[in-house]
Amino acid sequence: MKKKLLALLIASTMVVGTLAGCGGQAPADSAENTGASEGTNASGVQALIDATEGTVELTVWASEIQQDLTQQLVDEFEALYPDVDFNITVGACSEAQAKDTVLTDVTAAADVYTFADDQINELVAGGALQPVSASYTYDVAGENLSGAVEAATVDGQLYAYPSTASNGYFMFYSTEYFTEDDVKSFDQMMQIAADNGKKITMQIDAGWYLYSFFKGAGLDTGLNEDGVTNFCEWNQDGGTDVAQAILDICSNPGFQSATDEEFQTGIAEGTIIAGVSGTWDAEAAAAAWGDNYAAAKLPTFTVAGEQVQMSSYSGYKLIGVNPHSDYVGWSMLLAEYLTCQSSQEKRFDTYQEGPANAAAAASDAVKANPAIAALAAQAEFATPQRIGGNYWASSETLGSILAAGNPDGTSLQELLDNAVAGITAPVSE
Amino acid sequence: MREKYDEEIKTELSDEEIDNLDVNAMIHEQRIREKSAEKEKRKQQRKESVQSVGRYFSDAWEAFTRGDVWVKLSSVLMGAGYFARKQIINGLLVMLAEAGFIFFIAFYSVPFLADFGTLGTVKFESVFDPVTLQNTVNDYDNSFLILLNSIISIFVIIVFVIFYIANIKNVYKLQLDKESGKHINTFREDLNELVNDRFHITLLTLPVIGVILMNIIPIFVLVAVAFTNYDQQHMPPNSLFTWVGLANFKSLFSNSITATFGYAFGKILVWTLVWAVFATFTTFIGGILLAILINHKRVKLKKMWRTLFIIAIAVPQFVTLLLVRNFFADSGIVNTICSNLGITRLLQNIGLVSTSIDYIPFLTDPGWAKFMIIMINIWVGVPYQMLISTGILMNIPSDQIESARIDGASNWQIFWHIKIPHILFIQGPALITDFVKNINNFNVIWLLTQNVFITHDQALASSNAKEVDLLVTWLFRLTNEYYNYKMASVIGIVVFVICAVFTLITYTRTIKGDREEDFR
Amino acid sequence: MGNITDDTVEKKEIQISRTDNGDGFLKFRKKLFDVLRYVLLVFLVVVWLIPILWLCVTSFSSQSGINISHFFPTSWSVDNYIKLFLKPDSVVRYVTWFRNTLEISVFTCLISTAFVLMVSYAMSCMRFKGRKALMSMSLILGMFPGVLSMIAIYFVMKSLNLTNSHIGMIIVYSAGSGLGFLIAKGFMDTIPTSLREAAKLEGASEFTIFSKVVLPLSKPIVVYQVICSFLIPWGDFVMAKLMLNSGKAEDWTVAIGLYNMLDKSLVNSYFSVFCAGGVIVSIPISILFVIMQKFYVEGITGGSVKG
Q: What is the rounded distance in angstroms from the CA atom of residue A382 to the CA atom of residue A374?
């Protein structure tokens, strides 16, 4: 209790003195200039510099694709503190797999690592994230989009530094086949695809995507207050209608349930002309479709004769600090640097990933990006992922049964009941 | 053994009155005879082994009570007995070992062993100081390290006790030797022994240490984990886990809506056994047939044919299997070709493929996936078996086949009554090892189905299992993705028991070495 | 071993065919079967080699993702190989991986071959107390599923501070190899006792017998062991991934590196590079396998015939 109070107190006094940009105020001489009045955080950094002896050995994990930029940012970070001897290694670990690698042995994991926000619950439960109880070079909670901050928060405590805000999904399409009006309705899109002998895709056998149908129809699922188990309304009134709607979509000749890899291959080959996916496929789609490349929010689909807007999960990439790091302080400063406004802007420039930083996200260049604009349009129908581990396997199985056309002919209500039983199953003590 | 067998076959074949089948009957009879003799022998052995354990300890006690003062002193200062017989270096080495042991136990093991009963009580706590940017961490217990190090320490203690008993006996023997005026070895002579009569000690020390480190200790640790609650909710270093007795075994063998481990276990066990039987026999028979085909006398360029098949297995398995997985993907190239050729439509008409999908679910439908896995395993396994069968076929004494031919045996008869029994005889034991290997065949199943196959059974999904999983792939997923070490260890123990029982029933007689002297 | 060559089979055939008296129908049937036999063989070879062929042609594809509509790439290039060898990026460090794997496998091979031969000699040629107990125990140990003990091995190695090191990998691959002595022991069982006894009468020590008498006679099994243990690090990705977990691509082995290329986020940019990498690893291994063929057969059958 005392600990929490203290942390809160200090955090609140500390954040006041933040400056714009990220590097500016940290170096030793500027810290002297800021003076005592608002210098709590700067003096913290200064105290850290003074207290540091020998080489600071840090490991940073970023996805394979982002190695180059991460290395560049690390170099810049090192240059900010000329008095400190750093040895920072950049390693590869994709955001989607961070949890698996980190939790196997937390003490051996990197000091600073990137992960997708759906893993935050398990990482916190596994003690793999250092609480962000204070920020030093910029106001983490204040400068980032509220959705991103919410995604990085568990039980009211901020646990990670938001890095990108574009990890959700939306609809890619080729204007060669679709008009802006066409992409408002799933049925219309499938019709056009079928007429052209092509496909539109979405991965049905994945809980992440399946959610958008049920949630769109008003049937929610999410985390209980205990933070481990789930509630799920999918088997309530109207659930079978949604399941039937998904079955209909899957059996439509203009539709195919496809993974990301299949989507990318398909658009390159020209067999897929639209699909639900995320910014990670933007480059491939732009390359395949050229000027015809476009993106939009998710369409509506037909449930029991009515048009229903699809919902979605919003997604963020977060950077976390390992509490077992030997240099927690430096790790936090590095994580702050990797997620500060200028770094997020660079990340957008290099990889077209939408910034989580509010100022960076408001820039014209970001707004002009079709993928990010689509995400923004989808934002009002998107919800952050707050779901316990039991959700994934059961929803995936439900999706795979529906995608395969319910081969056993089980009643839809029973399918949903089974899935809900799995999703809401208690977690062993 | 082989000579005997060959001789029999020869006499059988030259005697026209007796059908070839009788060869098998003869062998059978002979085996029965051998078996009963063996049984007797075993009974006796068992009795002896019980007695010998008792003798082991009574001998040590006798040595201690009857020994002189130096022997008695050796029970405390282990080198004393050697010093008294002027084996100074031996004495020093033994003293050094004793000191090392005491040092190890006192300074390393005690803290772990003290917590072994609870597996730790102090939970990890860390307080961050925002002014100094440092974490203050308490002196917490790590349950896993306590478990691991306790088991290592217990091992060291057991080894030391054996060493200690051997030492007392040895010192007493030295005393007796001295009293009866026998020659007592110098250190140099002792060393010399190590490349002669006791050469096995030299040979075995390093490999045994390696096996203890890499096999025995890990196995004991995981057997112990099966009796704890080590899972994702109790992961060191941030949480503690503790002993829970047989609770995990109970949840494996019970079945309720929320705990589906029992159901999943039953299903996967059945498929594991089905798979092992199919995988073993299809590759075995396939390999023999291929070997016979290639080794047919009128097939030219035998070596080239063989090499072509070998190339297929020379590419590392993970490369070929991952490739084949993409080959047969739902929107993969085989599906494209099948759909262009109308095969997909054909299969839909027969009812093998659901009409609601327009691809063949090679690796995504439970039934199809099981079939494909077995087929692909044939692809992987047959070339190996072909090589081995070739070797065996080449070794069938030619006179056997010749005399069979002269007696008018057809190719078919020769195949069934000479070649197959011969291969079976030689390969029998290997077939059983193959079966056990297939029960634990991780690569094929994992590489073909991981991230591709999604179960269609909610009860399996709740236990993180899939229809195509073997017990080993299931337990790998449980540890690697869900950190459910407790259940994985329980499953591991069950797999082990199944394999061990199976092997012991069918195998001991041929492998245990009871007959190895007969062959020389 | 192998004293029946194809030649003698041929001779036998001539003998027997003389009794056939050249019946026309039989001759035709024979011809037909000959043709059918070759057709079957060619068919089987095609089935067995199609994936390998696909691997090879895809490695020369200029399209980086998975090819789903054509078996052969639409345009050819050697870019993938250039990338492997000359243009390493953050995902592909093929030359480094190759060197790492080679290093690990050479030492693994030396140590585990030595271990296997040492244990086999002790078990086969020597008689001592507890020998049978040791043999039964090793048989039982071999049945415990290896994937399960990995996590414990990891922590054992970590407490020895040997994770993320190639020495650690060598130990992991070779330390337990003593358990795999059965085949080599079976082979040594076939070496006549009289040879060893004769050497003993001349005053040779057990060590001399081991190194000067038994080892030279065990050449096939030595070669077999050398090649088998050499191949382990090239194919293992599970253990290696667990042990080399620092995320530093420079530390990886070929297997981890290639496996990593098929990660969801990478597969569409690196699939054909993966194929090229697969082809390059396969070349040395194929050569070893072809050499091994003879020894493999002699070693295995020698080991299990016991006669």
A: 12
